[in-house]
Specification:
The structure is a single chain. By secondary structure, the chain is α/β, with parallel strands linked by helices. The protein has 3 domains: 103 residues; 38 residues; 164 residues, Trna Endonuclease, Chain: A, domain 1, CATH 3.40.1350.10. It has 14 helices and 7 strands. Strand 6, helix 14 and strand 7 form a beta-alpha-beta unit. Helix 2 packs across helix 4. The longest helix has 24 residues.
Length: 330
């Protein structure tokens, strides 16, 4: 049974929360997201502080939810579940929120709290949300596909074909493997079928390619020595300021693919590279590869080329639209 002192402490705590909520509600109009996050962090921090000093049990959150709903019936976010997220939010940021954490929505923070363990990994995905403007659904997909394990893992020769120090800056824009889980293809599919499927799902394809990729065309023609050659897919990378040529292979990697790509890169740069552009980068995307074979194939090539594999897995949910953001995680 609650003591009079305990009741007084709770009422003091509840009164403080009400005052803070009323104050922050007036500021929401000016800076809705950052103020809301600050308020939610403050509530979570207050719950942690009072639980520690007063020895309150877990039922305090249930009681608090009821009282806050009575006091603020129109204020979203007072559910028991959301208050638990606020507590977890305060635990994840024990010294308060920084500038970057205020740039993503409460829904994104809830997703990170639910699905990502560890401050370093949460920071990685938070920065990706800020850089790329990911919706919550996209964030969930990138986490479930282990982006942090794939980014920067493509096999390449950038260190030998780029100025000193640039290789590390470039490789983070590429992955291995690439995951194409938004369409289905038969096992015996040929390159043109894979190419068509990717272009037909260009939004999700570019989402998987990552930050900076702009699609320019498919089967782009090159003419050299009186013969025509065709690039499977052509991109421009807006962060690297260079073109990216992609060749698709539905089988295992073969060394001769590198020689062909090297020819394409030299011919393309001669005809299309402007003074503002860096050298074009070639990506050979295969169904499988032998890493040792790929390493030897790249060894003496003078153009920047990467070799990666792709995976076709179960299709993603179709609702990759930005969700309507509310303040409640329910």
């Amino acid at each position: 049974m609650a003591t009079a002192k305990s009741q007084d402490k709770y009422q003091e705590f509840l009164s403080g929360l009400k005052t803070e909520i009323q104050t922050e509600q007036m500021k929401f109009v000016l800076s809705a997201n950052s103020q809301m996050l600050r308020l939610f962090w403050w509530i979570g921090h207050a719950i942690l502080r009072y639980r520690k000093t007063e020895g309150w049990g877990t039922k305090i959150i249930q009681r608090l939810s009821v009282d806050l709903k009575k006091a603020f019936p129109d204020f979203k976010g007072n559910s028991e579940r959301n208050l638990k997220y606020m507590r977890a939010f305060a635990l994840a940021y024990p010294v308060g929120l920084d500038v970057k954490s205020g740039k993503i929505s409460w829904y994104h923070h809830v997703t990170l709290l639910d699905k990502v363990k560890g401050e370093k990994l949460r920071r990685f995905y938070m920065e990706k949300v800020i850089e790329n403007g990911w919706s919550r659904d996209t964030l969930v997909h990138q986490i479930s596909s282990d982006l942090h394990l794939r980014q920067g893992k493509m096999q390449h020769n950038f260190a030998k074909t780029m100025p000193a120090g640039k290789s590390e800056l470039v490789e983070v824009f590429f992955k291995d493997p690439y995951i194409f889980d938004f369409f289905e293809l038969p096992q015996e599919a040929i390159e043109r079928e894979l190419e068509a499927a990717l272009v037909n799902h260009i939004y999700r394809f570019l989402l998987e390619m990552g930050d900076g990729f702009a699609f320019l065309g498919r089967q782009v023609q090159l003419e050299k020595g009186g013969q025509n050659y065709y690039l499977d897919l052509l991109f421009y990378h807006t962060k690297l300021h260079c073109h990216v040529i992609m060749e698709l292979k539905t089988g295992e990697f073969k060394p001769e693919y590198v020689g062909k790509m090297n020819f394409y890169l030299s011919a393309f740069d001669e005809d299309y590279r402007s003074v503002e552009d860096g050298p074009a980068i070639g990506i050979i995307l295969c169904k499988s590869k032998n890493k040792v074979t790929a390493e030897y194939a790249l060894r003496d090539v003078n153009n920047p080329i990467g070799i990666a594999v792709y995976n076709l897995t179960d299709a993603m949910p179709g609702n990759l639209e930005i969700p309507y953001i509310t303040t409640d995680a329910n």
